Model the fold of this input.
Amino acid sequence: MVVESADPFDPESRTAELPRPGGPIGPVADEFDPLVPPSGSGLRGWFDRFRGLLTGSALPLLPVGLLAAIPMHFFVGRVDDTVIAAPALLDLLGGFGLLLLPLMWLAYFTVSALPLVISLAGVVAVAVYRATLGATPRPAAVWRLVGYRLRALWLWFAVFGVITQALPLLLTADRLGPAVAAPLAVGLTVLSTGVLTFTGVLGCVVLFERGHGRRRAVHLVSLAPLGGLIVASLAVTVLPRVVDAAWGGFASTVVAVATVLLWAIAALVAYCQGRRAEGPVTSRSLYAELSAPELD
Done:
């Protein structure tokens, strides 16, 4: 016999529990969700959603790219510039000037993470809002969705930025010898690509899921196909440097902003695919998580 509620004292669980009419139920996965790839769709499903977000949100994401370009162009430089500045600080302030170097490095690592923070938060807010409500959000709506989570996101990205930015300063061909120049360049590129791949998913975890961080991101990374996100992360690592060497800083900034936005879209879709592998999830359920009030 099927009843509305299972008998808690039935040791054999011979009754089935049915939802009450009109009662809340979990999200029902939609195979045509504009944001979440279908279950088991692999890289094909990832690419379909990535392409849809890119074509549908390119223009709405233009203000996000312009905002990220400001710190990208004017503030984010090479960390070894601070080493070049060390003699000038020594001449200017004596021995006390060298004490400013750690502060300069800290400021660099903090500001260098800002374009990634702006791009990922902007992409998440715009994409989820458009997928759920079918309209482009105003800046105030974007801020309401992600503003109070930017501090945690910025902190995580700054910490991982130390890994990708400090190692090229410490491990150089001048110190280790010219024989290791090529393997060192390849190794640092692989490391930076891996860090960007992981932090892309981690950033989405921080934005959507309060109280979760690195372990949760590791779990989702193990569930999602990462081929597309790895390619996007590699583009962020390599293309701006190539363009900077060929055409200079302004062109490098344009390419860097474009690749970072593509990386953010790739990270969002990969995160959604990891969530879908766990169970039903939709754009509307993600919007509800994103718009939930912050609890102290």
Residues 1-26, 77-90 have pLDDT under 50 and may be disordered. Residues 43 and 225 are 6 Å apart (CA to CA).
